[in-house]
Write a structure and sequence with these properties.
With 348 residues, the chain is of the alpha+beta class. The chain has 10 helices and 8 strands. The protein has 2 domains: 138 residues; 130 residues. Helices cover 45% and strands 19% of the residues.
């Protein structure tokens, strides 16, 4: 194996930056080192992925159909890539079809075979990989012979820039195109086109975008937990003193929430854990408590006709809905109304 039969496939992947394809090529390469039957399965997957990428590049309306058979896929990709001669296109397709039949009959993944037929031998594996090498080389040559269509190519920006020699043009564009930023609206205007900074983060700094969402959600959690805890202390525990010895501050935990930006509402669900120490006798006391599920209804003020974004700092509590524990067991006796909060001396 002096020549690398996977070189063209790697070059194809590098051009379009397709991490999943690169992983499949590597698996095929590793299987081929020990002539494993799975080599054909992995090579076939590589060919399918390359065909679909060619079709995506040449035909923006292409729809990936996993049921399309390999010969039809190869024939369509070769046609879109520029091979108009029916005999050449048909010959290549027939060759791959014949070799691919080996997979259906004898390889490990061939239509759920359970050892009813013998595994393929080294000759068939070498033959398929040789065909794979030539076919991937053909696709690489075809896509390299013409410039990609910038309007719908999936090629990475830096790859496209280097391929088409656009470095100077892009530098000139970066310094000459007008850029305006509307702080109040939170939008960028580049050459008159509106672009949202959040969209830029989503496409080019996905992890930073996700981190910002996590930070915002943590602030909402913290604010709602604080609002619920304060409400309990002010409107519930303050009025509790029969047989009272002491009580701990309630522990509020918010599991999750949903936001309705149009109405300026946040609905959070979670639980409250309480612990109360009761004076039973002059020399004896008992600690009791329990956990109750809640739904906290919150809001933030939205001026009429204006888009007021959610700022966790300005969230306010509307009401606490105490979830009837019977709801978990299917008891619908309280359906249609909010359960009353449990009295402190009724803590489970």
């Amino acid at each position: 194996m002096a020549n690398d039969p996977f070189q063209s496939a790697y070059a194809f992947e590098k051009r379009f930056h397709l991490p999943r394809l690169r992983l499949t090529i590597k698996k095929a390469e590793e299987a081929y080192k020990t002539l494993e039957p799975e080599t054909i399965d992995f090579c076939k997957s590589v060919i399918e992925s390359m065909c679909k990428q060619v079709l995506r590049e040449k035909e923006p309306a292409f729809v990936d159909d996993e049921k399309t058979e390999l010969p039809k896929l190869i024939k369509a990709a070769l046609e879109k890539a520029g091979i108009s001669n029916d005999q050449i296109r048909g010959g290549i397709t027939s060759l791959v079809n014949a070799i691919a039949q080996i997979r259906n009959d004898q390889t490990m993944a061939g239509h759920g075979l359970m050892g009813s037929k013998p595994l393929i031998g080294e000759t068939e594996i070498h033959l398929f990989v040789s065909t794979f090498e030539h076919l991937t080389r053909i696709f690489l040559i075809l896509i390299q012979q013409e410039a990609p269509d910038i309007r719908h190519t999936t090629m990475a920006f830096d790859k496209l820039e280097a391929l088409l020699g656009l470095e100077d043009f892009n530098r000139q564009t970066d310094t000459s195109v007008s850029v305006e930023y509307d702080q109040e609206e939170g939008t960028l205007l580049i050459a008159g086109k509106e672009i949202r900074p959040s969209e830029i983060l989503y496409h080019f700094a996905r992890q930073d975008y996700a981190n910002k969402i996590d930070e915002r959600n943590a602030r909402i959690h913290e604010r709602i937990e604080s609002l619920v805890s304060d409400d309990l202390m002010e409107n519930w525990f303050d009025g509790y003193n029969p047989n009272h010895f002491e009580y701990d501050d309630p522990e509020v935990y918010i599991d999750g929430f949903t936001v309705d930006p149009r109405q300026g509402k946040v609905m959070a669900h979670g639980s409250i854990t309480t612990r109360v120490t009761l004076d039973i006798s002059p020399d004896e006391y008992q600690t009791t408590g329990g956990t109750n599920k809640i739904i906290a209804h919150c809001y933030w003020f939205i001026e009429e006709g204006e888009d007021t974004p959610l700022d966790p700092e300005y969230l306010e509590l509307d009401r606490i809905e105490w979830v009837d524990q019977n709801e978990d067991t299917g008891d619908a006796s309280n359906a249609g109304r909010d359960p009353e909060p449990p009295a402190p001396n009724e803590c489970p």
